[in-house]
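Data card: per-record layout.
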Amino acid sequence: MLLALYAIIPLCLLAQLMDSFVLNGALLQYLPSSPSHFLLFQVLFGTPHILASTVLLTTNKDYFQFYQKKIIIMTLAIMMFFAIANQLVSYYVLYILVASWTVYHVLKQQHGVGRAIYQLPSWAFYLLLWLSVAAGISIYIGIFLKDTLTPQYAEWVKQLAASLTVSLFFSTILCQRYVKTRFGAIFIWANSLLIISSFYFYVQEYYFLAILIPRLVHDATAYVFYVTHDVNKHLGHPQNFIYRWAKKAKLNVFIVLPLISFALTYVLQVYGDQWVNVITQFLFGMEIRKAISLGLIGYFSLMHYYTEAFTWKHGSPYRQYIRFKP
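The structure for this 326-residue chain is written out next.
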């Protein structure tokens, strides 16, 4: 099932080729120059699975208690870091740091899932992971900062991304020799193609497709794990208030978490900042810009990157309800 998610790669390639050779670039003209300019993209990708992860962690009392100390410490660390960093470093440095963590998180998840499948030696696994991350960061910067980079810097970023992507391609050929199964070989190429295809669309200036591919695969993979976990834990015997309410409402367990997370995303992205501004204007006579879309969701995002690094590992209470098979 997870491998089927990578079908987005040939589908996007087909769409791009048809647009280039049949539609004369009509699709390219329609697509936003950056995914962040497309509200529907923000509602459907990125934030929903982050909120789903947050709901899963905070609404299961045993999980929250188990990780409470780490959550508090990381919350304080994030507050201190940004309080100090805002005074010492530029916005773009902070942006690149957060972007780098985002790319690392996205690709670490996919390679982490794949690790049990293709069972590479440690050096080979980390070679592919770090080449993917480095190339991914270069592509991310090239797309999201393209309007602020000088032509020379933009070209350097593109050349760096090209060098890293080519290195990833040949490294995948090298590492494939250590994969023992056909399925493992397919999966290792699927993960490498996340970056290779993104670089191709980046060069072709189909920026939306370049970001869509890894984002969709990552988010959908996360939902597969979240929903599988919740079905195994709550089906028949709901263990928290959300699933007790869902049972009374006769909602299928499979749709509860996606439904909640997408609804929360829509409300927060569309109305959150506006509501906060109304409240702060009434109480304090001032507005707090992007308190929800940047502040609160940004906090949830960083906490998500942090907690997902250990909540699915051996010894985690999550693992009582989900197993990984090689």
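Known properties of this structure: Residues 71 and 77 are 10 Å apart (CA to CA). The first helix runs from residue 8 to 21.

See the next section for split statistics.
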